[in-house]
Amino acid sequence: MERIVFMGTPSFAVPILKALAAEKGYDLVCVVTQPDRPAGRGRKPAASAVKEAALALGLPIWQPRTLRDPEAVEKLRSLSPTVIVVAAFGQILKADVLAIPARGCVNVHASLLPRWRGAAPIPAAILAGDEETGVTIMLMDEGMDTGPILAQTAIPIRPDDTTGSLSERLSVLGAELLLATLPGWLAGEIQPRPQDGAQATVCKLLRKEDGQLDWSLPAIELERRVRAYNPWPGAYTMWRGRQLKILRAAALPEWHGPQTPGQVISLPEGAGVSTGRGALLLLEVQMAGRRAMDIRDFMRGQREFVGSRLG
């Protein structure tokens, strides 16, 4: 039975962990995930999605602060893994860790490498207007998602996809592709394919302030931001000194009207916002501390909204 150490942290990694746990022939000797982090208004320590899943599955859990300490490396080595499977773990693995398993460290990455190397490939694909994305099973090296490819599969990005909805589909796809690929890799039947570095693109880690909308941008780009930043960090603007989240919106790139970016305008469908090019039709919004509302319901309660200025 092949000994596997699994490393992952957010909900994206959970279907992959569950698939491995349910597959015969694999012994999940340890689940490695990030330490509990403060969360919510009370800032109480909260377990990662992977930790919660591992607890439910009755799997051994380890939450090292870092894998750079010699003691942590030695503990990993003592587990004698055949392979380490990584899915959105959140720490870069150094050479001493990569060298531990006989069949290396295999990463489930949510993009079609070499496109969108980095920590936020799913929102990056939406922001860029990509028509498709996918999952890559990769043999890890010391670079940032630069290792050779073992397998890849693509899916279309739907016009209404958010990072949340696309993450759900890609995590299931990643689990399926990993289970289809791992037996051949462990048996030595797969030849890793080097990435073409000339085709590589890199994405940055998202920050909270990325969610603030700049109304001077084209409507089509703002609509992508609304979808890419859902559920985090969330797309938002300011109205009357309070934060207004834009949960759903649609671009009207051919709209011509008041050319004051940020001005709220009346449209047959409800309310929109003038942008640097076209208008952004608002579909669902949420004031800070309030529930999410359909834009028509929001307008009925906020009569002075149309004609005001956002941002």
Helix fraction, binned, reads 25-40%
Ends apart, CA distance between termini? 59 Å
Largest sheet: 7 strands, mixed
Looking at this structure, what is the CATH superfamily of the largest domain?
Formyl transferase, N-terminal domain
Mean of the pLDDT scores?
96
Low-confidence stretches: none
Strand content: 25-35%
CATH architecture heading of the largest domain: 3-Layer(aba) Sandwich
> Using only CA atoms, what is the Rg?
22 Å
- Number of spatially distinct domains: 2
Please tally the helical runs, counting DSSP H or I stretches of 4 or more residues.
8
At the fold tier of CATH, the topology name of the largest domain is Rossmann fold
Shape: elongated
CATH class of the largest domain: Alpha Beta
Give the topology string: H per helix, E per strand.
EHEEEHEHEHEEHEEHEHEEEEEEH
What's the total count of β strands? Answer: 17
Order the strands across the largest sheet as they lie in space: 5-2-1-6-7-9-10
Question: Structural class, please?
Answer: alpha/beta
